[in-house]
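Input structure tokens:
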């Protein structure tokens, strides 16, 4: 009996079964048709990212030079399980479709899935925890082959456990702080940049561009574990830089930024004068920080903001030479392809690929490269082509 016949005969039924338990790998062994059960229980967690406590000026300059270069080389997987035969439905549970990164990550999931002939249904949490819980329940009711979500996994433990019990793997994008599987949270894989590298990159830019003489203020929302970790990764090398000085760490709840920023910035100017750097976990602060600095008559030649996440507002400020001079973005559509790759690994019962996209740093000189002309980070390493070669077993040149 040929493989083509088996796929034609079983393909549709196997696609239906995959929702609950079984997928067809579409390969033959000497013993016959090879079947695998979709694995929803996560593999062991990866080691936690490590914070580098010190950076010399020379090391900092080398990091900046490396991380501002175009990312043309593919550093990701070159082999892995093929996508199973059949048509599958993936649920994308977005906590807030008005938030640009959630939209862009979902678009990447759709692009990758559609290239395989799969379907993606998006469920919108409308920006609230209760709404996201409802969206997760709606996703489960749709009986998908897998769920992909950038929502906080800690707040979704009941539906995640329900999904895992039903053999539906849950893939997070920024669903918790660290990359890799998270057995404690039920995540088969969590896709996120290395937060230690993000903080190190911010610190390196400040140290390098000040020649080791920076006076830095760090702004953070302490209610988020990932923000606290990034803060430590950023401030530790600056604090340990002999000629630098950490002036203050400001705990600013993101929800209070609009109301409190003017008085906060006025206080910082009164205490530390009109010449300092600011680093942060999240660029969402900087629209308000820049407005407060302009209102106070501060100069962008003396006060410089370095951030992370890089929403469109950050690209705009860096491009126009405003107070923000650098930001560390995270990939947009690439994260979606990584999520579908994790789904395929789960369908094959295999551990997710151990890959984290190298950190990129946006500055004025490269702001329009690597997707920057569209205000997003899209590495120029032809990642879609590389993944399709793995998933379809092809050898198309990726150029």
């Amino acid at each position: 009996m040929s493989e083509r016949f088996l796929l034609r005969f079983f393909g549709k039924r196997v696609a239906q079964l995959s929702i609950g338990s079984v997928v067809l790998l579409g390969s033959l062994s000497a013993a016959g048709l090879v079947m695998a059960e979709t694995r929803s229980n996560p593999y062991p967690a990866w080691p936690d990212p490590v914070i580098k406590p010190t950076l010399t000026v020379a090391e900092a300059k080398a990091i900046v030079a490396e991380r501002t270069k175009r990312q043309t080389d593919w550093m990701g997987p070159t082999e892995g399980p093929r996508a199973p035969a059949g048509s599958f439905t993936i649920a994308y549970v977005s906590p807030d479709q008005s938030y640009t990164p959630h939209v862009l990550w979902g678009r990447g999931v759709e692009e990758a899935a559609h290239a395989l002939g799969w379907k993606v249904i998006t469920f919108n949490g409308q920006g609230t925890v209760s709404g996201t819980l409802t969206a997760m329940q709606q996703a489960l009711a749709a009986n998908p082959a897998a769920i992909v979500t950038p929502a906080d996994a800690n707040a979704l433990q009941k539906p995640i456990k329900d999904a895992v019990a039903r053999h539906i793997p849950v893939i997070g994008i920024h669903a918790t702080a660290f990359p890799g599987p998270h057995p404690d949270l039920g995540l088969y894989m969590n896709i996120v940049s290395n937060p230690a590298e993000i903080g190190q990159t911010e610190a390196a830019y400040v140290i390098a561009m000040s020649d080791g003489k920076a006076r830095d203020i760090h702004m953070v929302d302490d209610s988020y574990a990932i923000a606290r970790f990034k803060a430590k990764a950023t401030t530790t090398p600056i604090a340990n830089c002999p000629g630098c000085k950490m002036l203050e760490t400001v705990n600013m709840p993101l929800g209070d930024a609009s109301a409190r920023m003017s008085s906060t910035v006025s206080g910082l100017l009164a205490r530390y004068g009109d010449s300092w750097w600011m680093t942060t976990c999240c660029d969402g602060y900087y629209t308000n920080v820049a407005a407060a600095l302009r209102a106070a008559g501060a100069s962008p030649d003396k006060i410089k903001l370095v951030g992370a996440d890089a929403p469109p507002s950050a690209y705009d400020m860096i491009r126009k030479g405003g107070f923000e001079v650098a930001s560390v973005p995270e990939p947009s559509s690439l994260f979606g392809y990584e999520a579908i790759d994790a789904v395929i690994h789960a369908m094959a019962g295999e551990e997710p690929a151990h890959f984290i996209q190298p950190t990129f740093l946006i500055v004025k000189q490269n702001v329009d490269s690597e997707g920057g002309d569209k205000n997003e980070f899209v590495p120029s390493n032809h990642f879609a082509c590389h993944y399709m070669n793995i998933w379809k077993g092809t050898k198309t040149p990726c150029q």
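Residues 3-18 form the longest helix (16 residues). The first strand starts at residue 22 and ends at 29.
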